[in-house]
Sequence to fold (304 residues):
Amino acid sequence: MITLNIQNETAQLEAVVLGIANSFGGTPSLEACYDPKSKEHVKAGTFPTEDSIIPEMKAVCNVLEKHGVKVYRPKEIEGLNQIFARDIAFVIDDKMVLPNIIDDRADELKAIQAVIDEIDTHQLMKMPQEARAEGGDVMIWNEYLFIGYSEEEDFEKYQVARTNKEGVAFLQTSFPNRKVKAFELKKSDINARENALHLDCCFQPIGNKQAILFEDGFKNSEDVAFLVDYFGEENIIKITREEMYEMNSNVFSISPKVIISEKGFVRLNSELRNRGFQVEEVPYAEIAKMEGLLRCSTMPLRRK
Fold:
């Protein structure tokens, strides 16, 4: 059986599900895209190929295994994009939450059934039908659950709105030991530079009390003020709109000291090293074209 334990975003990682790029379905039709960045690259003829992204995911797997992490992979399903393992399920404490995700992605859950089968059924939590959430919007940070979401008006309006207030309420009820802090995110189905697809596309805690933040991804200035006050101005690396678009906040922590990052994030990686982090650089720019990066591709099962 797989033991689950996730108390925060950065403790020493012991077991993780990493997505796969094999048989990912190639370039989708414009109508089949459900985020603006993918649409942009389909239109431009620059959507990634399988040959370009399999080595990127392999590089991440190599880094994880080098650091002694047990890596689980989804079962290959022909023609199905299974790169972004974060969204289809997520672990809080010793529970795996199985959320309701958009219909386009429902089959992805079947691909990790072998992992789910190794988890005690008492540790599986299925969200009620009206509650929606994706793992990219949910961050466990010690006493807090940080959740990115959309109020009903935006949730009904935007295809890129993936977590609703019912999803927030379900998590609050299910984990009463945690303070839930929900942040409304800015959404756009047509402009990737105006769209915070998930919370981890504009914010992520790193280390023991530091964070990466794109302030303009949040609808409400008081939410930004809360984060700046909570982490401390000096402990926050603020990123630009262009860096947000390139997914700079979507790095992935193996431990409080070790972060996997895209090799092209020159300013960010330099800043991380200046702050004492060990940065494991990988090529991931092709996968970034699908509006997801390293946190999106990983679903931690157990940290120390």
Notes: The first strand starts at residue 13 and ends at 18. The CA atoms of residues 98 and 126 lie 5 Å apart. The mean pLDDT is 95.
